[in-house]
Amino acid sequence: MVCHREPDDQTATWRVQEAKLHRVLPYMGMFVGTLLAVTVPTPHDFPLRVTLVIAAAATCWVAWFITLHQDWQGRRTLMACYYVGMLAFAAALVTASPWYGFFAGIGYVHAFFALQGRWRMVGVAVTGVLVATSQSGGLPFVSSSWPLWLVMVLFNLVVGGGVTWFSSVAERDDANRKRLVAELTSANERLAETVRENEGLHAQLITQAREAGVLDERQRMAREIHDTLAQGLAGIITQLEAAEQSRDRSADWLRHVDNALDLARESLTEARRSVRAVRPEPLETARLPDALAELGGRWSTRHQVPASVHTTGTPRPLHPEIEVTLLRAAQEALTNVARHADASRVGLTLSYMSDVVTLDVRDDGSGFDVGGDVEPDRDGGYGLTAMRQRVTRVGGQLAVESEPGAGTAVSASVPALPGAAA
């Protein structure tokens, strides 16, 4: 943040020059008054020697407080004492010679830095009386022409009071401006500190987001690899094992080998799509119900187990992540049936409801104990765990119902987030 400080610098320079002028003006007024008292005396002046002694004492008084002890200007009591003494000397000098009105007029100026608040107006009023007395020709003329003296006093009070009032307003405004500048400076400093803290927090958040993104991508790749390569390779192994056992029957042997080749090709295609983070191929060319029907048909042909696929409700486009989650859940459930259930039939039901979409996969296989600990597959698979993580990731729920000898039912419920219409 760049701040333009030239006006403040000019104000500071003006303040320094004003302070110098305040220290010089009393001596100038004293010099002019003394010069005129010596060269142009009035008939009613005091003896010159007495006048000069008073003038010298007044000069010493000003020099002691203003010139020799400039640091006293910030001490109110000492400055009030100085101002009262200066006015007393000014009154004595004006009485001695009206020419010292030039010195008495310094009371107007010094009232601003020597006095505070209403006392300034008192000082200006006393100074106005002294100056009016000087302008009237001194005390002897006042006694004979007091109406003129009153007019002069009134004039000086109006002029001096007006200048004092406007100067007080300007001083108050200047003090308010300084206070606002100080507050703004403090606010800017706090803002700069906050910006620095935010920069640190921003860098920390970026690091955390990067780490979270890396972890999320690793988990995504793990799920994708499990749902594609692991399932496909498991199917290939199953088919080749079956081919090994039916070596003597050429028709079955060829069928298992063909299925293994088809699975290998599909696994390779899905692996490439997973790396590119592209939707599964069935969802690229068909809607979710059709993709599930195609999946069930291929699975039934491959494993010689009837698989029926039904859809309830009104099908509608869903968010791509929702459709991928349901398709992968169906693939994983069918893979588990083929590997573990020894079922004679399988049923898939896709249900569209107002706010959720549910996929149910049921078989009449051997089942298992849901309450027991789920052991990892022999080849390191984690089918139900991966399925649950994928469903939970989109805000859904996975329920598994099974018992030994009574088959298995897997139900995945996910939010019906809408997607773009085809």
Concise description?
With 422 residues, the chain is of the alpha+beta class.
Task: Name some characteristics of this structure.
Heat Shock Protein 90; 422 residues; transmembrane; 13 helices; alpha+beta
Strand-helix topology:
Blueprint: H1 6-39, H2 48-67, H3 76-96, H4 101-104, H5 106-114, H6 119-135, H7 139-144, H8 146-245, H9 250-275, H10 281-285, H11 288-303, E1 307-312, H12 320-341, E2 346-352, E3 356-363, H13 383-393, E4 397-402, E5 408-415
Helix pairs in contact: 1-2, 2-3, 3-5, 3-6, 5-6, 6-8, 8-9, 8-12, 11-12, 12-13
User: What's the total helix number?
Assistant: 13
Strand arrangement across the biggest beta sheet: 1-2-3-5-4
Measured by DSSP, the beta-strand proportion falls in 5-15%
What is the H-and-E element order? Answer: HHHHHHHHHHHEHEEHEE
Taking the sheet with the most strands, its summary is: 5 strands, mixed
Unreliable runs: 1-7, 378-382
- Measure the end-to-end span: 52 Å
The structural class is alpha+beta
The overall strand count is 5
Please state the overall shape, judged from the principal axes of the Cα atoms: rod-shaped
Question: Helical content, roughly?
Answer: 55-70%
Overview of the structural elements:
With 422 residues, the protein is α+β, with helices and mostly antiparallel strands. Among the domains are: 6-144, no CATH class; 286-422, Histidine kinase-like ATPase, C-terminal domain (Heat Shock Protein 90, 2-Layer Sandwich), CATH 3.30.565.10. Helices cover 69% and strands 8% of the residues. It is built from 13 helices and 5 strands. It has helices spanning 6-39, 48-67, 76-96, 101-104, 106-114, 119-135, 139-144, 146-245, 250-275, 281-285, 288-303, 320-341, 383-393, and strands at residues 307-312, 346-352, 356-363, 397-402, 408-415. It has a 5-stranded mixed sheet. Helix 3 (76-96) packs parallel to helix 6 (119-135), helix 8 (146-245) packs antiparallel against helix 9 (250-275) and helix 8 packs parallel to helix 12. The radius of gyration is 51 Å and the shape is rod-shaped. The model is unreliable at 1-7 and 378-382 (pLDDT under 50).
